[in-house]
């Protein structure tokens, strides 16, 4: 059955294959175009470098009018990532625009890794360390990077 | 902060995902509304408004005044998109009987995509909304009774209806950004026009204010008259024309937080 959401997700997938942004990838799961798996590679010159972080993206029939639910599956230590992997990012909540596609979502999350926003913390420990003890913060992040190889 | 206090704190991240809880509640409320009110309803006599306010003297007297000026009302779903949905329905409905204006509007709509892309909107996604927008315009193109039925059907199909709203939001955002120098004065706080568009114009379900109406009607080269009905003193149902001085092609009723369509 073709619905606007499914039609649009096919387009998003096609675009992601034809014009893939650096450092991110994503694809629908085998039997359900509404659930995607994605990977974000830790950006260079950040403590996340070399990490391969897995995510799931769940769409509803209201996509692209409403944002999907994006979650890290890999363990993360980041000021804007909740314990359950949920992400606190404005474009995934109240600043969502229907003009964003999967490619835009993944690249936005990728830049969130480089530039955390400690003033809107989802993980208060990570936010505090990011602001006050950068060395400890980086140590914790590195542990996640190593964990991401194993997952 | 010392190392000791750090170790004493839990190593686990125990913050609750508040965003998700808020979103869940919001979805429940939206579901209730969407199950009880059509996206765009049938034309009703203005008497229905008087019945609605039978026990409310202030609103009742204003409903009576309104009934002297208008004959019918068409209600829209209060989902934050009501201005754009009400306007586009009423405008397309008006164009069904006006070939000249219809052709002018179709031409403007056709060219609007390239203008948005030139302003920096992503071509890939804008195209998707534009295609559907044009499809709707083309489907209601004939000057016949079936066009009216088609319009009503399309506007009550979420897929089409919402895509029309999205595209109008993009046109509005484009107009605000193109004339940023002018519109900047109307923005509260120290937000830039671009920020305002990202927060208040482009996202679905965000309510429309004067600035949205002015920008949209200017972009489409048409006029909107809004009748304001509230608890304020007097019995008048004040009219505002957007943009100022324009001949209105669409009449809307505003009650705090919501727009419906009015017919003379």
From TrEMBL, chain A:
Record domain UBC core: where: 4-150
Enzyme Commission no: 2.3.2.23
Classification via Pfam families: UQ_con (PF00179)
Active site residues according to the UniProt entry: 88 (glycyl thioester intermediate)
Listed GO MF terms: ATP binding; ubiquitin conjugating enzyme activity
Keyword Cytoplasm: no
UniProt enzyme class: transferase
Keyword terms of this UniProt record: ATP-binding, Nucleotide-binding, Transferase, Ubl conjugation pathway
Record keyword Transferase present: yes
GO biological process, one term: DNA repair
InterPro entries (alphabetical): Ub_conjugating_enzyme (IPR050113), UBC (IPR000608), UBQ-conjugating_AS (IPR023313), UBQ-conjugating_enzyme/RWD (IPR016135)
Family as reported in the entry's similarity comment: Belongs to the ubiquitin-conjugating enzyme family.
Protein's name according to its UniProt entry: E2 ubiquitin-conjugating enzyme
Automatic annotation (TrEMBL), chain B:
Cellular component terms per the entry's GO annotation: nucleus
Principal EC category: hydrolase
Catalysed reaction, written as an equation: Thiol-dependent hydrolysis of ester, thioester, amide, peptide and isopeptide bonds formed by the C-terminal Gly of ubiquitin (a 76-residue protein attached to proteins as an intracellular targeting signal)
One example of a Gene Ontology biological process annotation: proteolysis
Catalytic activity, EC: 3.4.19.12
Domain OTU as annotated: residue spans: 71-264
Residues carrying the site annotation Interacts with free ubiquitin: 214, 228, 230, 254, 259
Keywords: Hydrolase, Protease, Thiol protease, Ubl conjugation pathway
GO molecular function list: cysteine-type deubiquitinase activity; ubiquitin binding
Cited InterPro entries: OTU_dom (IPR003323), Otubain (IPR016615), Papain-like_cys_pep_sf (IPR038765), Peptidase_C65_otubain (IPR019400), Peptidase_C65_otubain_sub1 (IPR042468), Peptidase_C65_otubain_sub2 (IPR042467)
Pfam families recorded: Peptidase_C65 (PF10275)
Catalytic-site annotation from UniProt: 79, 82 (nucleophile), 258
Record-linked PANTHER family: UBIQUITIN THIOESTERASE OTUBAIN-LIKE, UBIQUITIN THIOLESTERASE PROTEIN OTUB
Family under the similarity heading: Belongs to the peptidase C65 family.
Protein name: ubiquitinyl hydrolase 1
Taxonomic source organism: Camponotus floridanus (Florida carpenter ant)
